[in-house]
Amino acid sequence: MKKVLSIAGSDCSGGAGIQADLKTFSAHGVFGMSVIVSVVAENTSRVMDIQDITPDMIESQIDAVFEDIEVDAVKIGMLSTQFCMEAVARKLEQYKPCNVVIDPVMYAKNGCPLMDPDSIDTLIKVVLPYADLLTPNIPEAEKISNIKIRNTEDMKIAAKLIYDMGCKNVLVKGGHAIGDALDILYDGKEFYYFKTQRINTKNTHGTGCTFSSAIASNLAHGMPMSIAVEQAKKYITTAIEHSLNIGKGNGPTHHFYDLYKNGLNIKESKGDL
Ligand SMILES: Nc1ncnc2c1ncn2[C@@H]1O[C@H](COP(=O)(O)OP(=O)(O)O)[C@@H](O)[C@H]1O
Ligand SMILES: Cc1ncc(COP(=O)(O)O)c(N)n1
Q1: Hey, which end of the chain has fewer CB within 10 Å, N or C?
Q2: pTM value?
């Protein structure tokens, strides 16, 4: 069985962070593991409190996994401060895992900040170079590339600028754009386009977490990057189509193993199952 590690924050309401990652791993038939970087008291509407785990404890958790278990892919999510980033980067340098997918989480869907804005330089200089794939959404791509993204051409310019900062592939996600949900992958040579119709729902809590974990799972299964993204796009689209009206804010997406195994072809009604 392939083994995939998530290094991320804990979302007690279950829709994003480590919890979304582990659900996605199970749906993809990989063995999921988790290193908790921050404990976030959040729900579908707001972030109430954040407690960062100490850098020593982050490093110990990563040691505990790597000294014992071969890791086929790593997904990295919320890294709230420079100190968390440096701890994770030290361990990436030490263990040199393959298939590292980094989602540079900055805000929750409800707009609450999850990363200290002063840490952006550390994110770029210390963490980003370890990414086999970096998966910024549009606001994150704007912050990292330092350009304004207004259209597809701007997404491509940002992808190139971010690629030049040292990651091996960049996927600029268009969930925050208007119109079709278009994501653009750049591998330093070519652009690949992944497009679906926009689904009319507010229940998109955890979409970025789920998407990056699906990609990491597919890479662990041995898929080449563009195929891993293509398949993960199908997974996240179906998970959004069947997203759940849980909570008062942005509800979570739906992870359903049979949905994936059976070619994403399910008969159940949409909404709460
Ligand atoms: N309403 C939607 N309909 C269809 N796809 C969506 C929708 N919202 C987000 N997506 C897709 O979900 C994935 C996650 O993107 P995004 O929401 O931009 O990430 P993040 O959670 O990091 O903000 C992308 O593939 C994006 O295109
Ligand atoms: C612990 C944690 N990590 C990440 C996100 C962002 O989730 P997303 O961008 O996928 O909606 C979140 N809300 N909470």
Answers
A1: N
A2: 0.95
